[in-house]
Design a protein that fits this description.
9-stranded mixed beta sheet, 587 residues, alpha+beta, 4-stranded antiparallel beta sheet, single chain
Length: 587
């Protein structure tokens, strides 16, 4: 940017924890900064457009600079919701192709590289297999019966022992090096991958996924789609109530604090209208009782599942957990589909979707289930530093945490699946001898922000496994028989996000110009030492099956818009300067 002669650029660097705190400030979007971020999505294509560009996500992860507009919201909605796309995956893919092209024109963000995750481990760690998403790797690698993945520790390994699970040993401690702090142990109030990673050891959900995104029952013994109704969100109008809004579009519930607006009437505008019609949780229950909903999924829970405090899991826990997700840090992503959660009997729960949702099977049951007591805690109330340690149903129990230093978890003595046996998973069709839970006794997470210090800790046998090391060191580890480098193309990408509400960034031509100044191929080769891939679209490989009708055609179409082209950038910049009457130096 500086070399064009049109910009004065100041680059500010922060420790990751400080950076996240800064960019999630409410007024960040007005400051005119261009943050450099990475997003870890899901197997669903919607997760690569809506979190960044949907207006409902403004101020949440990861729409930090006020991106989005009504027409784009409608496009994203049409690609995911409605019986048309539920019944016709090809139509859904074509509608997502329209979104990727629209985002290339709007240019609220510039995707740079697809993320590859490299994990480096010593040869004491066996069976390890990475997951496409960093936040899921620790849980997945330790134990995933769907893919027959099991990690174990063999301190007597000589480098020749294989990674077949049948050769596993039980016991030991895995020492895992992370490059950022665990900011939260409270699932609805966590948006960073590090917090989610450790929470996955402690908490569980109704379903689980394999490495290809296939869904399997977990805390639920089984589930079924009971009903689908062809409704849109206007069907809830009879159950909605009018609520005033302030100048920034914030809803002002009279005398009621922290009420979740599950649905805002599609014809109302929070900014333009003095009041809007909304559906609250109580209203949603009335609508469901009257038979108004989009989809109904039924989950039958395993009986005898216990939390770490001995409490037995019931449908009431699922309902209470869903309630706690209301108005949380992940509320926008949760209640873009969830309408209502209802206990049918002690071990059966129904989850209703607002409208037919092509991603419902993965998205509806995403809650990490709480105990009844913790479900009543205030926001960020699950906090071991405030004497409220996390309590879940997972295979590991919270042991201790030192802020910015370490986290310890130990294997629970009474994990429900080990008690029931692997046959309790009715979908499991593998060997009977596969363990019914992870086999490592303790997980020690060391928080070491410096890449060089973390690498030294690995070489000094202070940790066994880490990720995110400087790319220039990875080849050395690959060539060393004492280490293994596991690389996987993840479900995410790195990007810039432009402050579209601040002049001159409100001009799409300027944003397109800067996009032409991103040397994607050079970044991969010279900065990442080849560990990565230039990103020409906003759609990683993992979501392409449902997110595009023809990826090669899409990439060919968008690659030119993302080409490194200084001449094209200067031409666009000069057009903006002339049309807006700026001085020649845009700041």
């Amino acid at each position: 940017m500086e070399q064009t002669g049109y910009f004065d650029v100041e680059i500010e660097q922060y420790e990751l924890d400080d950076f996240l705190e800064r960019i999630f400030q409410p007024k960040y979007a007005t400051k005119g900064n261009v943050p450099f971020l990475s997003i870890s999505g899901t197997f669903n294509p919607e997760s690569y457009c809506d979190p960044l560009h949907g207006t409902e996500n403004q101020g949440q992860c990861c729409n930090l600079n006020g991106l989005g507009y009504d027409e784009l919201d409608a496009m994203i909605d049409r690609a995911r919701f409605g019986t048309e796309v539920v019944d016709d995956p090809a139509l859904r893919a074509r509608r997502y192709d329209e979104i990727w092209r629209e985002l290339a024109e709007f240019r609220g963000s510039s995707v740079i590289t697809y993320i590859t995750e490299e994990y480096v481990r010593n040869t004491d760690v066996r069976g390890f297999s990475p997951y496409p998403f960093v936040e899921g790797t620790l849980e997945y690698a330790l134990y995933s019966p769907a893919d027959r993945v099991l990690t174990w520790i063999d301190r007597n390994a000589d480098g020749a022992t294989g990674d077949e699970w049948s050769a596993h040993r039980s016991g030991g401690t895995l020492r895992y090096g992370m490059d950022a702090n665990v900011e939260s142990f409270d699932p609805p109030y966590s948006t960073d991958i590090y917090s989610t990673s450790v929470q996955s050891l402690l908490f569980e959900s109704l379903t689980t996924l394999d490495a290809e995104g296939n869904v399997f029952p977990w805390l639920a013994r089984g589930y079924e789609l009971v009903d689908v109704q062809d409704v849109d969100r206007r069907a809830y109008e009879p159950y909605m109530r009018p609520v005033p809004t302030d100048d920034e579009g914030v809803l002002e519930f009279d005398g009621e604090a922290d009420v979740q607006a599950i649905v805002v009437h599609p014809d109302d505008d929070r900014i333009a209208d003095e009041e809007v019609r909304v559906l609250t949780p109580a209203d949603a229950a009335d609508a469901v009782e009257a038979g108004v909903y989009g989809m109904q999924y039924r989950y039958e829970l395993h009986e005898g599942v216990t939390f770490h405090n001995g409490e037995e899991l019931t449908a009431d826990h699922v309902v209470a957990t869903a309630k706690r997700y209301e108005n949380s840090d992940v509320a926008a992503q949760t209640f873009d589909s969830v309408l209502h959660v209802e206990a049918v009997d002690e071990y059966v729960v129904d989850i209703y979707a607002q409208v037919p949702d092509a991603e419902a099977e993965r998205e509806l049951p995403s809650f990490r289930i709480h105990t009844l007591e913790q479900a009543e805690l205030p926001p960020n109330g699950i906090d071991p530093l405030q004497d409220t340690p996390p309590i879940g149903t997972g295979p590991y129990e919270f042991e201790t945490f030192a802020d910015e230093r370490y986290f310890r978890a130990r294997k629970t003595d009474d994990y429900w699946l080990e008690r029931k046996g692997i046959d309790a998973l009715e979908w499991y069709d593998g060997p009977e001898s596969f363990p019914a839970g992870p086999v490592i006794d303790e997980i020690d997470v060391e928080i070491i922000s410096s890449d060089s210090t973390r690498s030294a800790a690995l070489q000094n046998d202070e940790i066994d496994l880490t990720f995110g090391l400087v790319s220039s060191t990875l080849e050395e580890y690959e060539d060393d028989d004492g280490y293994v480098v596991d690389s996987i193309q993840g479900g995410g990408y790195q990007f810039f996000q432009y402050p579209v509400t601040v002049e001159p960034w409100d001009d799409a031509r300027l944003r397109r110009a800067v996009n032409h100044l991103v040397p994607r191929a050079r970044i991969v080769e010279e900065v990442l030492d080849g560990w990565g891939e230039p990103a020409w679209t906003m759609l990683p490989k993992i979501a392409r099956e449902t997110g595009t009708a023809d990826y090669e055609a899409l990439e060919a179409d968008l690659r030119e818009k993302n080409a490194f082209d200084t001449a094209a950038a200067i031409e666009l910049i000069e057009t903006v300067i002339d049309d807006r009457g700026y001085d020649s130096n845009v700041q």
